[in-house]
Here is the input.
Amino acid sequence: MTPSQSSTALRDTLLMGFCALFLLGTKMVLRLNLGIPGHAMFFTVFFLILPRAATGKKLAATGTGLAAGLASMLLGMGKGGPLLLLKFLFPALTVDLAFLLFPGLGASMAFCAVTGLLAAATRIIGVAATDYLVGMDTAVLFAHAFIKTLSGALFGAAGGLAAAPVIRKLRARGLIPASR
Amino acid sequence: MLPWRDVAAETRLPFPPWIMLILCPLLSLLAIVWHGPWSLPVLAAVEGVLLVLARPGKKMLLRLALAAFWQTAVITGLYVLRYDMSQWQGGMDISFRLILVFVPGMLTVRLVPPSSLERILGRILPGNLAFVASCCLRFFPLLLDRIRIIHEAQVLRGARVMPRELLSPRNWPDAVICIGFPAIVQSIELATEIADSAKARGFEMHARRTLWPQDLNRQPAKPVTPTEAKQ
Here is the structure.
């Protein structure tokens, strides 16, 4: 690795770290005040799509999600203990997969909205796993997980819609290459 | 140069903070996977002791009570709707278990100071990741300061981004364009500055990173006098 490559790699990793901290910060600030279930998915999706588009690394969203998940697990933000990691991991993997399958569409509103919707919908896996492991009845489990995921998915789509214009502006100003 | 503070002096714990970082996720995990008859009383007792150690204020207790109330109301309500009134105890049991899952995390925030967390991360993570984590934690307040200045400037320009105005979804696009975009640009700029500075100081020259503040804990070597040197 040449010095300039190492510097860029460090910059990208730092940017992912900042995005993880933004994600945690917004979750911490908003989770008690708004009172609308799933609204935290807006910022989760926004700060997962952004590092993926800005750094162009294949697993940037997953890295950011893992960092945020580990930190929130340690800080206990939200229910689920170690299973909190799943709640970040599945949306992050979905974002990475979407960008891998459709490269160069990062600035498209429709692409970001659909990616955000799907990424936020995967939250159902983490919610259902937590409910199942604590011994919740199956019928109640599905109703509970569905209620908790539905509004989250809509907020996730909104988060994707918000990320697209920011990516477009970053591209226009040459801060990220157009290929991402 | 900032003085290197004693970890034990800045925590309220009778044991090192790293124990808390192991104990809390473990307690959360036990609340999920341990279903024996003694699970709830034992976990409640352990978490109760930690809660007393945390010396929670009225605000924290109120927040905890509110969260517990809503949790219990929703889960028990779903149980009663699905079955009948006789199943309320099952719903209460699950609700109590879920409360025991999230209380340890809240206690971690209360009991482990952020500076200790940063030092512990430096010991756990491999060299470069520890550097990135500590840099992000160190420079994040600076980034927030820059964003606060941007926010104030945008308010003066007439952007509808005051907290009260942001309650209306019509003003959310303004927030994204006037605050979100400059915040991202600032993050990229700060990350570039840090990366360039690190490179200029020979970052990645050594495979194993050093963590200089820890060296300040050690007693400085006693200076050798000319007489001792002769002996």
Summary: Residues 1-10, 213-226 of chain B have pLDDT under 50 and may be disordered. Chain B touches chain A through 59 residues (CB under 8 Å). DSSP finds nine helices and no strands in chain B.
